[in-house]
Amino acid sequence: MTTAAATTTTAAAALTARGERRVTFAFLVTGFAALLLGGLLGPLQAMNYAGVDLYQYLPWLRSYYQGLTLHGVLNALVFTTYLNAAILLYFPAREMKIPMNLPFVWTTYGVMTGGLAMAAVAILSNTSNVLYTFYPPLAGHWGFYLGLALVVVASLMVAFETLRMRATFKRQNPDKVTPIVTYMAVMTQLMWILASVGIVVEVVVFLLPWSLGLIAGVDPGLARTLFWWTGHPIVYYWLLPAYISWYGFMPKQAGGELVSDSLTRLAFLMFLMFSTPVGFHHQFTDPGISAGWKMVHSLLTMFVGIPSLITAFTVAASLEVGGKRAGGKGVFGWIGKLPWRQPAFAAQVLAMIAFIFGGAGGIVNASFNLDPLVNDTAWIPGHFHLTVGTAVTLTFFGLSFWFVPHLTGRRLFSPTMALASAWTWFVGMMVFALGMHWQGLYAVPRRALVSAAPEGTYDGIALQQALTGVSGVILLVALVLYFTVLFGTIFGGAKLSESQRPEIPFVETVELRPVGVMRVLDMVWGWFLVAAILVAVAYLPTLIDMLFNQVGIQPYRLW
Amino acid sequence: MKESQHDQIATWERRWLAFSGLMSLTFVLLIAYNLATEGAHIAQRTTKAAPEQILAQDVFANPGVRVLAPGKIQVTTVAQAFVFQPSDVRVPVGSDVEFYLTAADVIHGYQIENTNVNVELIPGEVARLNYTFKEPGVYRITCNEYCGIGHHNMLGSVTVLPASQWNAERQAGPGAQAAAGEVDGATIYTNNCASCHQANGQGIPGAFPPVAGHSAELIQTQGRDYLPIVLLYGLQGAIEVEGTTYNGVMPAWSQLSDEELAAVTNHIVTEWDEDALPDDFQPYEPSEFAEARGQELSADDVLQRRSE
Q1: Are B151 and A65 in contact (CB under 8 A)?
Q2: pLDDT tens digit string along A59-92?
Q3: Sign of the CA dihedral A307, A310, A315, A316?
Q4: For chain B: N or C, fewer Cβ within 10 A?
Q5: Is B151's CB within 8 Å of A65's CB?
């Protein structure tokens, strides 16, 4: 392709992408707004685990548990779902040069935001303090369930659109395999379609009619099992868009290339297979599930660690190629040559480092015999603030440092402050995780107003409590820095001309496998079927037994 | 990228894959080995039935510590918002303790610190788990599953005693401990009522009505026999107190003795409402609760009775 032709294509693409940019920006900004609100409550939670109850001074929140419900729903469910919509639609569209169905995508945005508004009203009215796991028979307002159901429906509409664009591409290019970033997005969406079945059935068939008084009782054990059908893979639904950035963009940002196209695809294939049939590892302490099936899920959980280990290798090797090209020598010399001054890059490397610790802790949680010591203790929030709270969130920070300028055509506001926000977030979360994991070993329960427990209940853990409290302050600083950069860019960033606008750093890949292997990997619906069968085998024996032996429990409101 | 660099990476890639697979396999084998040699402390369900049926079983109607056989102890506990019944249990060191646990209302957690005892208590299910305490001491029990506004106050303890001391206590008889402490209404209130109705009796708006400034009025408007049935059978459904609607759930407290129920009721009506009581008010007697036990009402019946 000649330079002139390339320029024309880019310009044409940029022109047609305006509508896509706008809707993507809407998803992105709404997601970050949710993070801002939810994140501001975070330090209050941390202070609670330092033994200080600040909630009593907040007139607009009735209790710690209301604040915690808001924190969990906004950060874990809303922020991630909106960012995923942005990532899983925009990048495949640009990579394949297939236009989005814009009216449909805007409708999706409307459904998602309508759902968010309903759930938010329900929580703010103090009628739905059920936390983001909403285990029955604690019962929230029906608006809470309907709102969450709409958010999930909208996320499935996003999945539909990603798959439609890929199908259009395949129709136009029958000889080509799916491009790498699109492949990762498609696998993520297929995984989510399979994973979301549990929560859709739980909410639509059971909780929503129950909260409306149409059915008298819900079986809590069955509801928990359906919840965790979705509840574990949802963490991969949060994580895989971050992986897309690590595989798809970071090697380019580091001046390298993706060292193995096929291994990348294999990793995502394994996530499709093994993300979902592992939910019982959240229910090791549930009496109603047999030990044998818990062991099966424990085993499968160990397998789902493998694609993350593959990721560690492939991404690190890809960065090494970049570091060596920049003149780095020796086994470790290339690390210093990486673009550490670039906030978009540094944030994501810090995210990866946090994920190593998160993954190691996850192995403990997944181990059938170790989990009873830490289940439902402070260890657990310590764990997932490393995974979703740091690995995913910090990657989204890093992404936003180039993506928001790309979408808005405005220069990043203060790269130095952006870099500082990433480092402070990283340090704050590492300290938080240390304090919380450690408190968990002393059997301090998770999500409890421990600061108001009777005097002397939790003695001898002053150091651990202090670590958690200090981390809350550090994270508040990080949050302020980050949102100054984000809003500074959106509202005050210098205008960029069309040619100055950062391009999407799509990675160049190296194919290590023959084309036949690539075609087999590309049979995504076939793999979806295999994954569905695996989920059926792992879940149906237990679920059928539960469905036929239900004990309905009435709704309770205990707050 | 150069061909040689390519091959080099491919070689390391295969090694890393093999290492990853072997590491995961090692973890699985270690878990299996541990389960085979140490045994699992995994809760298993023994019964699934409506909570009312489970709570009617003798072991849960009168929860506590029983000796099943020499060296084999059974501890039964009912979790309800926001207490364990009983909250403090005493067991001998070295015995096989069989925990038999259930929840009366919502899901609760049951974790004993420094042990593998960690069970999700689900209403409608009975969980069984065996554990042997190796060291004497006092172990904290926490509810580690969110169960409502008083969740953090839901605590208990296991006191593990040397076998000789434990046996001596048992032989002194079950009355010995109760006799040691007089039945004290204020203590019962703190342990059982305060997590909802609060230490100052003011309750929580929207969920749990105040008892302060309200209980004496109830005696006047609903009759003297109303409070005993609320305590024994609970109350469920929306009620209005001083212009505010309350939609929480009052659990039944029938597992408390008649003496304890009388003491706590007298505490509530005199602590905050002494002045509002009728001049001829006589403190509640345990016999009034004994009589009320015969009625077999539901929480819904109590609500109907209130509306009349």
Answers
A1: yes
A2: 888 889 999 999 999 999 999 999 999 999 999 9
A3: positive
A4: C
A5: yes
Query: Is residue A5 over pLDDT 70?
Result: no
The verdict on a CB contact (< 8 Å) between B24 and A367 is no
**Architecture category of domain A20-448+466-548 in CATH:** Up-down Bundle (1.20)
Evaluate whether A258 touches B98 at the Cβ level (below 8 Å).
no
**How do B72-80 and B65-69 pair as beta strands?**
antiparallel
Query: How far is residue A396's CA from residue A381's CA, in Å, rounded to a whole number?
Result: 20
Q: Per-residue b/e over A319-352, b at no fewer than 16 CB within 10 Å?
A: bbbbbbeeebeeeeebeebbbeebbbbbbbbbbb
Chains A & B: contacts with CB separation below 8 Å: 211
- What does the alpha-carbon distance between residue A414 and residue A420 come to, in Å, rounded to a whole number? 10
With contact defined as beta carbons under 8 Å apart, do B294 and B225 qualify? no
Which among B104, B148, B270, B191 has a CA at the least distance from the CA of A554? B104
- Tokens, residue A82: 């909106």
The DSSP H or E segment spanning B130 is: strand B125-132
Phi-psi region of A543 (alpha: psi -120 to 50; beta: other; left: phi over 0): alpha
**Encoded tokens for B32:** 């299996």
Which of the 8 DSSP states describes residue B126? E
Q: Dihedral, CA atoms, B50, B53, B58, B59, nearest 10 degrees?
A: 0
CA B92 to chain centre: 21
Task: Provide the residue count of chain B.
Answer: 308
Contact A73, A123 (CB under 8 A): yes
Amino acid at B56: A
Cα angle B299, B300, B303; round to 5 = 95
Q: Nearest CA to CA, how far is B156 from chain A (Å)? A: 10
Using an 8 Å Cβ cutoff, are A400 and A410 in contact? no
Cβ atoms within 10 Å, residue B194: 18
From residue B142, alpha-carbon distances to A376, A457, B59, B114 in Å are: 10, 10, 22, 12
More reliable by pLDDT, B243 or A484? A484
CA distance A354 to B178: 53
Residue-level pLDDT at A37: 95
Instruction: Confirm whether B27 is a catalytic residue.
Output: no
Long-range contacts of B235-240 (CB under 8 A, 24+ apart): B235/B299, B235/B302, B235/B303, B235/B306, B236/A554, B236/B299, B236/B300, B236/B302, B236/B303, B237/B299, B237/B300, B237/B303, B239/B209, B239/B303, B239/B306
Q: Which two tokens stand for residue A468?
A: 């958690």
Question: A373 CB near a chain B CB, below 8 Å?
Answer: yes
Distances (CA, A) of A34 to A22, A44, A72, A120, A138: 19, 17, 11, 10, 25
Half-sphere CA count of A86, side-chain side, radius 13 A:
28
Catalytic residue check, A236: yes
Q: Compare all CA atoms of chain B with the CA of A317 and give the residue at the minimum distance.
A: B9
Contacts of B103 (CB under 8 A, 6+ apart): B51, B78, B79, B80, B121, B122, B123, B125
* Contact yes or no for B116/B140 (Cβ under 8 A): no
Task: Give the residue with greater pLDDT, A31 vs A291.
Answer: A31
Note the pLDDT tens digit of each residue in A453-500.
Answer: 888 899 899 999 999 999 999 999 999 999 999 999 999 989 999 889
pTM of the complete model:
0.90
Instruction: Please state the length of chain A.
Output: 559
Domain ranges for chain A: 20-448+466-548
C-alpha torsion sign, points A333, A337, A343, A349: negative
* Assigned CATH for B44-172: 2.60.40.420
What tokens were used for B125?
A: 């299910």
Q: Which CATH architecture best describes the domain B185-307? A: Orthogonal Bundle (1.10)
Query: B35 and A372: CB-CB below 8 Å?
Result: no
Instruction: Specify whether the CB–CB gap between A158 and A186 falls below 8 A.
Output: no
Distance from CA of B78 to the nearest CA of A (A): 15
